[in-house]
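Recap from last week: sequence in, structure out.
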Amino acid sequence: MFDAVFNRSAPRILEIGCGAGETLLFLAESRPENDYIGVEVYRPGLGRLLQAIHYRSLNNIRLFADDAVRVLSHRIPERTLEAIYLFFPDPWPKRKHHKRRLIQPGVVEMLQNVLSEHGRLFIATDWEDYAVHIQKAMAQETGLTNLAGDAVYAPRPRWRPLTRYESRARQLGHKIWEFVYAVCTEGVAPSGVA
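Predicted structure tokens:
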């Protein structure tokens, strides 16, 4: 499917909640050998991203203007992604809204299913409560391994650009919690965080 969409065969990376595309644009330019897929529901951000893609003449980005769960369950074939990026998802801080958080057992299974063998899932949040929630939800998923170790946070990936959102979080004194998970196949866990 994606070979036809991108008109080539290449490693494919999905960013959920790509916003105006700061990360996607940076990576698509610096790593043209990869194809990038963005999912976003906020249409003004997608509009800015589409303008930037056109202005920079990038042909290795495709976008879904849709809900991430719908895209994961109906639009991404199994085992097709090398990586998924989920940077600073909506923390839904009120307890009554926690069920709206993207990292939930059913969604984690969907994420695992679209990742290729030893594919990586990168997550970052600046909400401690959400970091604890992520750690607990991911610990229940046996098909994904925390590459930093059980109950250990990962270092910030050097390749990830510093976005306006992350800069603002740092200025406010928020700590950033990072996670890197990998798909385990046949009981063999991959090694390394990068």
